[in-house]
Automatic annotation (TrEMBL):
Lineage top rank: taxon: Eukaryota
Signal peptide: none
Name of this chain's protein: Kinesin-like protein
Residue stretches in coiled coil: 470-525
Ranges of biased composition (kind: Low complexity): 437-450
Comp. bias regions, Polar residues: 608-617
Domain Kinesin motor: 21-431
Disordered: annotated span: 437-458, 600-621
Residues noted as binding ATP in the record, renumbered to the chain: 110-117
Protein family per UniProt: Belongs to the TRAFAC class myosin-kinesin ATPase superfamily. Kinesin family.
InterPro entries, A to Z: Kinesin-like_fam, Kinesin_motor_CS, Kinesin_motor_dom, Kinesin_motor_dom_sf, P-loop_NTPase
Keywords associated with the record: ATP-binding, Coiled coil, Microtubule, Motor protein, Nucleotide-binding
């Protein structure tokens, strides 16, 4: 093998395409003084070969690094233009969607500042592959678009999306932006490269098409609509959306084939290329972007653009639908290099975590190729991999979803971060230990790289015995790596389970707390109700007693009056009654008057006192009267008077 600056010939080995789940392309960006981190190139390619060689820059050599060779579907070197990348990556996906109705995803992956956004959306007046895809799509469809007056897209769409025309979208945007400082689109429509000569042959001459655009971003593991006009109001909080299967099934799908979608997304019906580009610009302007030490306009979220191509018959019956997802992933970064802090650091943590899960998914596909057995790709581990792969691996959409990745790299950028991404994204990898270190290895079984730097490939200088030893050591190294990886995965799984259990425990504790609070409230209410009822009953008793007392007093009064009347009549008849009887009568009258006053007083008191006391007092007040007016005594008196 040659040194990285003069790579080896074509036979060095390309990727095994037999059992590949993804196409993985590598694109090298031209280095600029601002973007360069290392002082020398650590990546080298050979024109026409799908491989890249990674040699540690001089500062890294002392850390015992070997030369690594990575294979991809294709490598685009620094001279490759946007159109070349477009023709090899998105155009086949677009053709599949328009002609065969197959969904496709294209995502860019790379270290921050390595050129992902430039590739996807272009920069400095240069079109990205997205603009080129829209250009080719609209020029291929031509005037065979559906008249919006003839269909109701809102009714047709089964994904709970909010479908509207570009005009209505623009109006809403205008209303949202009026009087508010908002993010205005600042992207001039790029003109180059020209793709007017590329068209896709449509499958039949009668079909009509509708193009729907939607854009969303995955920011801190939450999905946000990039075409939601309400975000332009400063006080409005963005609403996170859910990725799920729609509640209704479209006519051409079975429930098993049903694709997962971002529910409640805004979909804009673009009828021309200009309309589509306007929508794209609005989405771009809303995306979360910040300046970091590594990139002045660093994407802090993973952005998804969905181009949905709906096919209709000449009589406006929907015949099918296919989507292309173009994904601009946020770049992985080291906090130390990017010098990020607070919010940016938290964003970077979330970005790196999701990219690590993506890396695991990508890495497993190479193991599939090597073992010949289908490995389980852990795409459910993160929201990002779920969004990217759930429709590819679950058999949804008929299982025809095709995924391609473009890995972007700067040959003079961050060596550690770049080689790490190449390691997990490459379709095949080969490690070569330089000569000096291979000798050391045979003596001490430790891999190291000579201080003098990488030299000729090991195979060409070793004797057969040494070659066998190196081969054995390499296979052991590979085995250990695999074991370490599976241990790491087990550890991660255990850690996730622990976290899950902790979350559940927290949930249970919260519920317990809630239940206790509810119990307390209930007890309080019951106590209050019982107290109210008791008071009511006491009041009723009091009223009853007063009534009974009144009746008794009235009856006594009537009774006494009647007796006095009888006595008066007796006195009139017997005017010569003995003086002691008359005196007794006068005394009785006085006593009667006194008792009446006492009854009046008792009544007044009864109104002010508690019912039981009132009752007792009244009884004790009435008792003397009763005694005095004892019928027998009275009769006795009357008889004595008569006598
Ligand atoms: N192939 C290229 N040709 C010319 N310029 C490029 C190329 N790739 C990247 N650049 C320039 O490098 C800078 C950073 O690129 P870009 O914003 O695309 O990086 P990125 O990978 O998207 O970063 P991040 O992950 O932080 O968003 C931009 O100014 C862009 O114009």
């Amino acid at each position: 093998m040659d040194s990285p600056r003069s790579p080896p010939p074509a036979s060095a080995g390309g990727p095994n395409t037999a059992a590949r789940l993804f196409e993985v392309f590598l694109r090298l960006r031209p280095s600029s003084p601002q973007s360069s981190v290392t002082e020398s190139r650590f990546l080298a390619t050979t024109p026409g070969h799908p491989c890249v060689y990674v040699t540690p820059p001089s500062a890294e050599r002392n850390r015992s690094r070997a030369i690594e060779k990575f294979a991809f579907t294709r490598v685009f070197d620094e001279q490759s233009g946007q159109r070349e990348v477009f023709e090899e990556t998105v155009l086949p996906l677009l053709e599949d969607a328009v002609v065969r109705g197959r969904d496709g995803t294209l995502a860019t992956l790379g270290v921050t500042g390595s050129g992902k956004t430039h590739t996807i959306l272009g920069s400095r007046g240069v079109k990205g592959i997205t603009q080129m895809a829209l250009d080719v799509l609209f020029s291929s469809i031509g005037d065979r678009t559906v008249d919006p007056a003839k269909i109701d897209l809102q009714v047709l769409d089964n994904t709970e999306a909010l479908v509207s025309s570009v005009a209505a979208f623009r109006e809403r945007m205008q209303a949202a932006q009026d009087g508010h400082s908002s993010k205005h689109s600042t992207f001039p429509t790029p003109r180059t490269p020209d793709v007017s000569d590329i068209t896709i042959d449509l499958p039949d001459s009668k079909s009509r098409y509708v193009i729907l655009l939607s854009m969303y971003e995955l920011y801190n593991d939450r999905i946000f609509d990039l075409l939601d006009e309400s975000v332009h109001f400063p006080s409005t909080r963005r609403k996170a959306l859910i990725f799920k299967r729609p509640s209704t099934i479209s006519t051409w799908e079975t429930s098993r084939e049903q694709k997962k979608v971002v529910s409640g997304l805004r979909k804009i019906h673009a009828r021309t290329l200009q309309e589509a580009l306007q929508v794209l610009e609005h989405g771009q302007a809303t995306r979360t972007v910040s300046a970091t030490n590594s990139n002045a306009t660093s994407s802090r979220s993973h952005a998804f653009l969905q181009i949905e191509i709906k096919r209709f018959s000449a009589r406006h019956h929907e015949r099918g639908s296919a989507s292309i997802y173009i994904v601009d992933l946020a770049g992985s970064e080291r906090a130390r290099t990017a010098k990020t802090a607070s919010d940016r650091l938290a964003e970077a943590g979330s970005i790196n975590r999701s990219l690590m899960c993506l890396g695991q998914c990508l890495q497993l596909q190479t193991q599939v190729s090597e073992n010949g057995k289908p490995a389980i790709v852990p795409w459910r581990q993160s929201k990002l991999t779920e969004l990217l792969f759930s429709n590819s691996f679950s058999g949804a959409g008929g299982g025809g979803h095709k995924t391609s990745m473009i890995v972007t790299a700067d040959a003079m950028g961050d060596f550690n971060a770049t080689s790490q991404i190449l390691r997990y994204s490459a379709l095949a990898r080969e490690v070569t230990v330089p000569r000096a270190s291979s000798r050391a290895m045979s003596e001490s079984s430790v891999s190291s790289v000579s201080d003098t730097g990488p030299e000729a490939p090991v195979e060409s200088v070793l004797v057969p015995g040494e070659q066998r030893l190196v081969a054995r050591l390499m296979s052991k190294l590979k085995e250990t790596e695999m074991r370490a990886r599976s241990m790491e995965e087990l550890w991660k799984e255990a850690d996730e389970r622990r976290k899950e259990s902790e979350e559940r425990l927290k949930e249970v504790e919260e519920r317990l707390k809630e239940s206790e609070e509810q119990c307390l409230c209930l007890e309080q209410t019951v106590r209050e109700e019982v107290a109210d009822e008791m008071e009511e009953r006491l009041e009723e008793m009091r009223r009853g007693m007063i009534e009974r007392l009144d009746t008794e007093v009235e009856w006594r009064e009537t009774y006494v009056d009647g007796k006095i009347e009888i006595m008066k009549r007796g006195i009139q008849v017997h005017e010569d009654a003995p003086p002691n009887v008359l005196q007794q009568l006068a005394e009785l009258k006085d006593e009667n008057e006194r008792l009446r006053r006492e009854v009046m007083q008792t009544r007044r008191d009864a109104n002010n006192r508690s019912p039981s006391k009132q009752y007792k007092n009244a009884r004790s007040a009435v008792k003397p009267l009763k005694d005095v007016l004892n019928l027998d005594a009275f009769r006795q008196l009357t008889l004595e008077g008569d006598r």
